Amino acid sequence: MEFLKSGIKTVLGSTEPGQQPSAAETVEKLVDRVYSSTLLEDRRDACRALKALSRKYRIEVGAQGMPPLVQVLQNDGQDAEIISYALDTLCNIVTSEEFDEEADNPAVSVNVGEQFTEMFIKNPEHVTLVMGYLDEYDFRVRRGAIQLITSLIANKTRELQELVLVSPMGVSKLMDLLTDSREVIRNDVLLLLIELTKGNSNIQKIVAFENAFDRLFDIVREEGCSDGGIVVEDCLILLLNLLKNNSSNQQFFKEGSYIQRLAPMFLLNSSNGSSDADESNWTPQKVSNFHCMLQVVRALVTPSNQQQVVSACQRVMQKSQLLQALCDILMSSGVPADILTETINTVAEVVRGDRENQDELSRVQAPSQPPRPAIVVLLMSMINEKQLLALRCAVLYCFECYLYRNSDGQRAVVQTLLPSSATDVSSLSTGQLLCTGLFSTDTLANWFAAVALMHTLVENVAQKEELLRVLLATPGGQRPITLLEQCTSLMQQERYRLQSKVGLLMLLSVWLAHCPGAVKALLETQGTMAYLTAQLCANEHDEREYLVQGMCAFLMGLCIQFNDNSLANQRREDISQLIIKRIGQETFCNKLSEVSRHEAYSRACKQAQIRAKGASELLLDYEYCKLYKGLEALIAKLVSGFDVDGIELTELTLSSEASALVAQYKGIIRGMDAQIQTLEQSSKQLEQQNAELKEQLSQEQTIRAQLTDQNTLLKAQLAAQPTAAAAATPTTTPTPIATATAEQQTTETANDEQLNAARYQANMYFAENIRLTKELETLRQQLAAEKQRADAAQESLLATQKDQDDLLELLADQEAKLARYESPTNEANDTNGR
Questions:
Q1: I need a surface site. Which of 287, 475, 544, 620 has the fewest CB within 10 A?
Q2: Confidence tier at 818 by pLDDT (50, 70, 90)
């Protein structure tokens, strides 16, 4: 510190005793020295002093020293030392971190670095100027430029990304620095690229096509893959930035065979010939590296990606043995809990929706005695209350992905619950584990098991029917009860907590949807409708109780929507009457909408993966929310369509004024219908005339072709007759002269007559040909006119149909408004009547 003070005194000169200059005065003198000094050494010493002061007096140096420092970068580029001082000083000014020297300075605000960054980039040429120093090979200059750009990007990411994009060869310069032989430079560039590629797809694409994947894999291999240091983690974070939410880079990664290079990195090193991983080998850095590797895999197959890209990557992961390597990690001992959790989530997304991968997961056996399927072992962890919450959520997500669009897997789970499949009582099955969790005293186990069992029924009506056959033994040798009866019984018990009830309501709702048999079985269960009605009539003020009431309303609505009316006194009209008289239509609809207003609904709708910071956040599931979203409006409309007598509301139940308005609209629609029918008949007549004209035109063209052929034949005959006569003359027998002359005259006369007759006939054909040609042209013109009329009629028809659709929509809106206005009017009339 004394050395720095002496250096500053050397630059500024000594002061008089007792007159210690302030920091602002000192900086002002140094700035003036940078501006006015003609000697490079003086300017260099001033920049060195500014760098020393910038850590403690950042505001003073930044406010006064930024313009001269930029001037140094512009004019003194030939001197590496002064440039490095200027770059380091600017980096200290704009950095977001707080220095120890300024900890006691109250004038330094939290975002002072961001403010200086905004001042610096106000002129875009400043960033281009700094980017130019990346070409300098000098270590101090190149590293200073990299660190300054990194600090600028960290403070103003969006603005710097745009400036780097327009900078000449800006991204290419940064990519070239990854091959720098100096590891410090390379590592700093990695940090810069991590900041640069955040959330900008254009820069991500440029970096990817600058051969980034090859360079990053080379660095990871050189550093030791998952056993490497922090550099490996930085490479994987940059790789994750390039792949996340960027379908172009994902496709390029898959087509470049980089998934095959990723697969060997997941092979665990065996210790002492054992296949199990040694827990001591999992250093904190290796855990971080492995976590990033799993994140890279998930970035390729996450459900939010394009389905085409996800399917292609899943197939490659199966063929490259990446899925097998992940399953080996899953079944290995000594794996840290957070890595095991993330591995389960990764396996889930690799198999989601891909039948071959799902089948491969079903064939994985756990190394236990006796061997058990991996699915069974995972479910045992899910219903075990001693396991971590994150791990249990991951297992549920994996089980959901295994069953996603996997009808065979769903059938296999349901079959383990049927009586015919219970051949080996000693072996645990998926169905037995789910029932164990469903009837457990652990609330979370109830919820996990209910949601897992619900996913065996998603979009599979056949398994919903099969699950109705599941029977459960009862104590005391009484008759067995069905699983549906047991679920409804548990739902009505007071000891069954709210979270467990939510799970059962989700299971029952998915079970009943699109399955009239399940609806009938539920309605036959004693006390179920009474319990649902009591829940909806209750006046609870707890937010979670509101959620349960909304789910009960949805379940009751499903009993109306998918009711086949096969049960007496439990028909759709009967349940609607129960709602209207005991609950009220408006109250029912308000309760029904409570589900979508709950915070848990918003969380569950975002993604299929279950994310929860605490056990209390586990309430709704993604598939249930999707079902609710699709049927809520339908159920509300269905319930609102009945009056107190169980009759569906029509225009007959409206007031005279409303009925007159409806009749007016109906009259307009009838008129439009009549006009449409008239236009349709006109269009058919025009089409028929068009067809007749086409047929007549075809006949005329055929006649014309025949006449043309006959005309050609006659011309050929006329040309051949004189030639035949000339050829016959030399062969005649010599006769007396008189006889010969008479015969010759007779022959010529006959030939002239034939020639004249042929010419006359040819002229007749030619005239007929001209007439037919004109008639053909006339028919074509008529055909074109008819086509125009038909097109005009078709356009008029379409316009009329559009007007009719608009009127129908307007009528529907008016009927809805009338229904809303009619309800309070009827209530007022009833009140007045009483």
A1: 475
A2: confident
